Amino acid sequence: MPPPTVETDEGLLVASFDGSARIKKKGGSFSAVIWKLPEWTIVAAESRYVHDLTVNEAEYNGLLLCFELLADLDRGRVILCGDSSLVIRQMRGEIDCKAPGLQLLRHKALEKLQSWPSHEFLHMKREWNQSADQLASTALQSEKGRTVVAEEDRQDLMTLNRLDELLKPKQDGQLARVTAIARSARRIRHEPEVIQEEIVQRFRIQRIAKLKMKSVGLSISRHI
User: How high does pLDDT run on average in the chain?
Assistant: First the structure.
């Protein structure tokens, strides 16, 4: 299924979520990041850690955390993004949900979804979900969740974001290329149009390498 498209300068919300779990310690973490378009600014970002949580349960809890963070926002269009094929397909009704524990979580998510009549689900590979993945991985490592408030920490998550490469606005009948570096470029007074693609990628790689140093040594069981 092709990713949703957005209109140029369309104001909408994008909610990305992720979940991770350890097999031996039987602990799991999950995260959610709420983005505001067209600026791709972070409205809210949070992670949590829970004992006795499977990977799929962690993914569903990440989705439920999205709805929790969305609760006080305007009920416009929202795109819900995750790298769990199982959760996305079950929420779309494409496959059955047979596990009792997941049935309860899915039911809760469907109830929350009723408050958002204009919604879409997007399944993506893990590499496109790096912002939520970083939050969940850090929570799993530290066995403690957190609410991301500091501007520097939010900028780190914005650097990891690649969703803007999937959700591309229409412009004059063609898809316009949007990159996360444009936001950072505005911050350092550069004009977005003169930034070359190789500079964009170099900047992103440097920031991602720095952030991933915090997660070295993780032993994570994941389900895609």
Answer: 83
Homologous superfamily of 6-215:
Ribonuclease H-like superfamily/Ribonuclease H (3.30.420.10)
Q: Pick the most confident of 23-32, 181-190, 200-209.
A: 23-32
CA 91, CA 172: separation in Å to the nearest integer?
Answer: 33
Give the per-residue pLDDT at 76: 94
Every domain of the chain and the residues it spans: 6-215
pLDDT digits (tens, 9 = 90+) for 129-141: 999 999 999 999 9
> Terminus-to-terminus CA distance in the chain, angstroms?
16
Q: What is the pTM of this model?
A: 0.78
